[in-house]
Fold Oxidoreductase.
Amino acid sequence: MKYVTLGRSGLKVSELCFGAMGLGQDWNWGADRQTSFELLETFANAGGNFIDTANLYTDGTSEKLIGEFIQSHRDSFVIATKYTLADTRPGIKAVLDGQKGNVNGTGNNRKNLLRSLTESFKRLKTDYIDILYLHIWDHLTPIDEVMRAFDDVVSRGLVHYIAISDTPAWVVSRAQTIAELRGWAQFVALQVEYSLQQRTPERELIPMAQELGLTVTAWAPLAGGALTGKYLKGEKGRLPENSKRLSAQAEAITREVIGIADRYKVPPGVVALRWTMQQPFKSIPIVGATKVSQLKENLMALDFKLEPEDFQHLNVVSAIDLGFPGAFYREEGVRQSVYGGYFDKIDHPNLPK
């Protein structure tokens, strides 16, 4: 395991992050208590120190299990959790079934942030959180309220670093700029769905992350298991038959991954993970697992690297339409006009390739 600094901070995290959404069986799937501890131990023994969870994952059981596991060596781990979504009893499944709860027990507001943080402390058996994510933008709370509340909990030592997930690029940009100008705590990471099957963040979110110095923490880097090829073999999983991750286009990408994996004699998932890790920006895939065998297979990505030609081939077969203005910048006439014919002689990471 190698380590990288998160965003523009000095915080050192492992190059793979363990995704803990599957710890606990409250949602009728996932790992039981013993398996959860085995998963965490396997990750730690491989050098992993970066664990990602959220206040509502398995109705709080995920945080509870992590809290039990890290008790004797809390400072060795970087625990990232999230606030926004409903985590009040009788649980998220009940909320989704229409049962109402605390109207301020959800969302990005200051009250819910502090309430969620207090409950996460109890479940994790800790008095500080390493990284606190805003889980998803609620389209209600003023941006300055969010950033001032974040700065308050950082100033009080309750949270060490802040990050944001599943939020439009314009919101993140404005929030980060407000924080920078006012001397408040700034985001160090951006969590988005990103994989060979989901590259739409390349339109706005990832260029923004590069400019603002945010590490991209990629959730579903294996597209819910589709990129492992198991669905092509007829194996069952949690993806519904009409999932976009099982579409004809998605299947074509998966077959290309399998072809490359066969040549390297590694599992397809290792190729898909390594593609995410080898991006020209700071990118850490979040690897979820409910079986130790799955996690050990994912950890094979640590000792594997794609050759440039294979990396580029995967880029081509999974390419998306960047739309406007991304595709516009790549037009030859535009390049010539903007760079005066010197485009190919200018070496800069931001140029549209």
